[in-house]
Write a structure and sequence with these properties.
It contains 17 helices and eight strands. The termini are close together. The chain binds hypoxanthine and zinc ion.
């Protein structure tokens, strides 16, 4: 690997993906195939027409289309096939461990049973381990535009499938729905031994990151790019080594940054934060893991050391056993030395 550029190295090394909404991996082709399989009509004439609608101005403009796309998912096989397609892409990008977000309320609100969602995704995770050697786990996200009461009901509905998910997260429309809205349900999740993460500081202010840390006691922050506006917060994140699961192409497509050259990734690394690279919703934002990694390296002129730090951070931030973490770190070291 010693003759490779930083971008080539980024593509080649093993890495973990910790911020991927599995519903955001639904490619337009699969949306159409599932609509046909399930006898559903889509309000788009073709795959191309759907893809042309992917011109977003902010988070909400994306979420409206993302929830519409997910409406083709009805049966266990649909959830399995969606996740399997993602795992094949992850394998191609040398992702060796991944933690998938899923949004059960998007499906249960349409009458799809929780069992269907969880079983379809969990069977794909088991298959990824068996056939691709990728370790994979599920994180159940609460939709923050809905009430905390709805989140509690979702947690209750999911508890019969407790062994199939390792933690909970918080996603959807951020501004106006601060983390503190979900303090009680997150306390319950922590008491149940679930890992806890939350989206914060994507469009929302640094105060939302403080709330995620202090009210929800999250172990990671998803996005967190606006932390740089608050030096005290940056110092706190560095002290705690709270990982940030950063999604560069998402930030570009949702106009959080206007150009990848302005992306804060380098500043986050230079501040000593445990930042990681992730794809968020790869079917909608123009690229999977390696597209995010390579384009960020090239836009910001990241070094080979930065690249290795990002991969190490991804394993440090993973919710894996210490034995698995050591195995992942060793695989990285072995690849770099080769
Ligand atoms: N932010 C918030 N909610 C989401 C996202 C995101 O980037 N992707 C899918 N749901
Ligand atoms: Zn996200």
């Amino acid at each position: 690997m010693s003759t490779m550029t930083a971008a080539q190295l980024a593509a080649a090394i093993p890495k973990a993906e910790l911020h991927i909404h599995i519903e955001g991996s639904l490619e337009p082709e699969l949306i159409f195939a599932l609509a046909q399989r399930n006898g559903l009509n889509l309000p788009y004439a073709s795959v191309d027409a759907l893809r042309e609608a992917y011109a977003f101005t902010n988070l909400q403009s994306f979420l409206d289309i993302y929830y519409a796309g997910a409406s083709v998912l009805l049966h266990e096989a649909d959830f399995h096939d969606m996740a399997w397609a993602y795992f094949l892409r992850a394998k191609a990008d040398n992702v060796v461990h991944t933690e998938l977000f899923f949004d059960p309320q998007t499906h249960t609100a349409r009458g799809v049973p929780m069992a269907t969602v969880v079983r379809g995704l969990a069977s794909a995770c088991a298959r990824a381990q068996a056939e691709l050697g990728i370790s994979a786990a599920l994180i159940l996200c609460f939709l923050r535009h809905l009430s905390e009461e709805d989140a509690f009901a979702t947690l209750e509905a999911a508890l019969p499938y407790r062994e199939h998910f390792i933690g909970v997260g918080l996603d959807s429309s951020e501004v106006g729905h601060p983390p503190s809205k979900f303090s009680r349900v997150f306390a319950r999740c922590r008491a149940l031994g679930l890992h806890v993460v939350a989206h914060a500081g994507e469009e929302g202010p640094p105060a939302y990151i403080w709330e995620a840390l202090n009210d929800l006691q999250t172990e990671r922050i998803d996005h967190g790019v606006r932390s740089l506006e608050d030096p005290v917060l940056v110092a706190e994140l560095a002290k705690r080594r709270t990982p940030l699961t950063v999604c560069p192409l998402s930030n570009l497509k949702l106009c959080v940054v206007n150009d990848l050259k302005d992306h804060p990734m380098k500043r986050l690394l230079d501040a000593g934060l445990c930042a990681t690279v992730n794809s968020d919703d790869p079917a909608y934002f123009g690229g999977y893991m390696n597209a995010n990694f390579v384009q960020t390296v090239e836009a910001l002129g990241l070094s080979r050391d930065d690249v290795i730090t990002l991969a190490r951070n991804s394993f440090e931030a993973s919710f894996v056993s210490e034995a698995r973490r050591a195995e992942l770190m060793a695989a990285l070291d072995g690849t770099i030395a080769a």
